[in-house]
Inverse folding.
């Protein structure tokens, strides 16, 4: 994809500003419409009723302005949003090409954590083994965002059997690229920098203490706050805001607070993409909506019996699918009545972020 020199939002040409906006992560897919007379900007951080916006004035000068949020804004802007500005006020939010979402902790709706992403970095520490359960669910949520997941294993300096862990990761999230880092030794940091090149916007998704901010600091030589995480888990949430950083290497990286397993949102599309191997076999199940739980003519169970699919893989699918159904029911209780036979037997929200990783 080339520079976004074509028509700008609303048809007004960005002209010579196209390259400048490219440094803010603007891609040809960001084509939401901007009303005439507005300036285009990208939200770096939102604090309540204001947001910091990076934008370019017509003479090409880059500015960062603390802007008010117009009261009528719907949706409310989040870090990564492209917005229309007038007089230091955000008056519109452009259509999002992707968005990382989770269930709203304050209600029944959905909260958008970051918008207009190309990559979701699944930041997973391996110094105490791999939390497989968490990795799979992060992958589902990342695929659901519309962006591409990318696994970043952290704390390799404290890990044993890195090869074995990498093999496990490849089997758990088969279509996802993987890199292994240490913010202490510098391992993998150049590789990560090359992934985050100009025009790319990435967000880091991981538990608190996974090493997200440390990656940012290793990339940039910066000193954003990180915090020791004890085994008991205190010292969580060194990062408390969602913020967009422009990397000197060219890309755009969003650092967000750690997320708990309980807060993950599971969508059908993400399950399908994370378990593409099962989906492929499931095409041969007798029933389209086969639950792969003793249904007649189930090709997936047959594949497990024949040794062509690991049983653990089907167990994972069943558990995650059960959680998906559980989240659906909690949003729309009527689905309960419609599909009684498919009611999963797996528990839905018993998972805790502190689940010990399997050794
Ligand atoms: N040994 C080792 N420790 C690391 C590495 N990366 C991060 N840490 C340590 O892990 C702890 C947590 O790191 P952070 O970068 O604050 O983690 P975070 O994911 O940003 O956490 P939240 O902001 O709470 O979500 C800190 O004590 C870091 O020094 C690493 O590569 N190796
Ligand atoms: Mg942090
Ligand atoms: Zn089946």
């Amino acid at each position: 994809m080339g520079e976004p020199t074509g028509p700008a939002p609303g048809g007004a040409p960005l002209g010579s500003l196209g390259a400048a906006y490219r440094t803010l992560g603007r891609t040809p897919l960001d084509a939401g419409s901007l009303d005439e007379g507005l300036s285009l900007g990208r939200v770096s951080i939102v604090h309540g009723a204001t947001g910091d916006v990076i934008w370019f004035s017509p003479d090409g000068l880059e500015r960062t302005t603390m802007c008010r949020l117009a009261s009528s804004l719907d949706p409310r802007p989040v870090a990564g949003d492209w917005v229309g500005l007038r007089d230091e006020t955000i008056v519109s939010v452009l259509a999002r090409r992707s968005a990382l979402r989770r269930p709203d902790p304050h209600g029944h709706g959905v909260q958008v954590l970051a918008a207009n992403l190309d990559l979701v970095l699944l930041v997973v520490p391996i110094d105490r083994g791999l939390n497989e359960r968490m990795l799979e669910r992060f992958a589902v949520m990342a695929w659901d965002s519309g962006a591409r997941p990318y696994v970043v294993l952290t704390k390799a300096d404290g890990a044993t059997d890195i090869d074995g862990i990498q093999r496990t990761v490849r089997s758990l999230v088969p279509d996802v690229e993987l890199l292994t880092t240490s913010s202490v030794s510098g391992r993998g940091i150049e590789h990560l920098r090359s992934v985050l090149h100009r025009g790319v916007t990435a967000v880091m998704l991981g538990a608190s203490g996974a090493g997200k901010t440390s990656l940012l600091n290793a990339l940039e030589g910066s000193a954003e706050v990180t915090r020791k995480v004890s085994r008991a888990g205190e010292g969580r949430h060194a990062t408390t805001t969602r913020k967009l950083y422009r990397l000197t290497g060219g890309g755009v990286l969003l650092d967000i607070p750690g997320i708990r397993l309980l807060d993950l949102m599971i969508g059908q599309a993400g399950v399908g993409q994370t378990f593409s191997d099962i989906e492929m076999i499931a095409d041969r199940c007798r029933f389209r909506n086969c639950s792969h739980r003793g249904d007649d003519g189930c090709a997936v169970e047959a594949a497990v019996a024949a040794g062509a699919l690991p049983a653990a893989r089907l167990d994972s699918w069943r558990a995650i699918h059960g959680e998906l159904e559980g989240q659906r029911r909690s949003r729309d209780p009527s689905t309960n009545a419609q599909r009684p036979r498919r009611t999963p037997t797996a528990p839905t929200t018993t998972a805790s972020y502190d689940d010990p990783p399997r050794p």
